[in-house]
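Human: I would love a firmer grasp of how sequence relates to backbone shape in proteins. Could you go through the record with me and say what the backbone is doing? Here is the record:
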Amino acid sequence: MSMTGMRRAAVGLTALAVAAFGAVATSPEQADARPKPVDVTLLALNDLHGNLEPPSGSSGTIAGQAAGGVEYLATHLAELRAAAKKKNTITVAAGDLIGASPLLSAAFHDEPTIEALNMAGLDYASVGNHEFDEGAAELLRIQNGGCHPVDGCADGTPFRGADFTYLSANAFKTATGKPLLAPYAIHKVQGVKVGFIGMTLEGTPQIVSQQGVAGLTFADEADTANRYARELRRKGVQAIVVLLHEGGTQAATGGINDCVGMTGPIVDIANRMDPSIDVVVSGHTHQAYNCDINGKLVTSASSFGRLVTDIDLKIDRRSGDVISAAANNVVVTRDVAKDPRQTALIDRYKTVLGPVAGRQVGVTSQAITRSQETLFGTSLGESPLGNLIADAQLAATDDEEGAVAAFMNPGGVRADLDAGPVTYEEAFTVQPFANNLVTLDLTGAQLYCVLEQQFVTNRTLYPSATVGYVVDPNGTTGTVADPCAGTRVVRGSLTLGGTAVDTTATYRVTVNNFLAGGGDGFSALTGGTNQVTGQIDLDAFVAYLTAQSPVSAPTLDRIRTTAEVPAA
């Protein structure tokens, strides 16, 4: 069971530990007679997103060091196991191992990433929202193996599936009420049992396409964890670890092993979890932290395989309780030897992929990043790369469907573009989801509602260059039930092509099919009519890069505040 205050470092026996062991030894003979605790090491990662090769740009560094790449990750895991008692080491993950992946993995439906993790010795993983990108049936194939039903075994070899166990406690088949995958696993180490409960975030349906979660229902994270913790205790398991694909964010001043000003869903979830839960390995927010929340060790290893969380547990042999838990986020540096098996895997899939990946599709005159500018103290502003993608989507539909504006969701922009030549693989890494463009009719009133919904969802839609509007930081925010009630967007300020929007007029607007279906909480877009489905977003982006090269970063002047544009 959890012991408050014992999470950031291993500690000696306290009054709580005395209760677990019995009376404190009063002589060396009594001390020697007491069974020594079992040392268990957990090696944890999260949000790998199929990054087999070291990520580029800022995504490939952390704590001031170049980091990531499965060739180095596998070596670091092996070294950490060697430093601990190898038989007492369990390797775990907190979701989004696949999905939103670079071309080298995504072109093969992420089979290469699963093979890499098999070789790296992963034991258990929770599902994340991106594990559902291609639907429940595909997730089951990833777990169990078999050729893809459409593309077959693209590399010419059978796919045996994951050697590790995916856990999915809070994703239920709607028709039967049963979990899609095993909700938990029990792992024995030197006679003691360690239970692992795996979950994704309850809000998965809001951030995955509706096809991806069809036939599934998602339950509250804390309630689900508590339910299965009770079941594990009935089976004699007292050491309980939750692998949860949901997380939080610490203040910018915090380092990779800090917990400064922690905020986000994980705080409430951990506070509502049963005291019998000892450790929460979290993810989803791509942050690094090492926290004590409500007497539980709560960790996250950032993203893209740049960190491994080394967690040390001491478990009482008699009671099976966790006596102490301590963690350390370790940087996956690139100054170690590459794992030769991982190198061979990467080389094999590169050969199969062929020359398409390296084909140049454009040139950038400067680095174009996905980072958002600050808008009245929060990162809710525009993004250079996000704006560029919106421009590309409008260019792909202005003639064909008469679109006058386009909007791009921030979660769909996955990487930066470096200065210089842009390859097809780099463009794919920026936009890996293969969403279709959808052009639809919205009234001016609906457009205002869509923009107000940004402040309900805390997500900015990146606008095409034809769009301009003013935000009032002192305006009111609408509600989930009535986002249109908000007054953050100054009425009369919204223009399309420099002309003020008439709330009663109708406008053709382009978004991707994820947004058109209400993704990221933009339910107001589902009211669009006369929908026409167009080309894949990546194709539109590639065509724009080719046609407009050399491409520069767009000016961030499409969303302004009342401080910049005083009220008339």
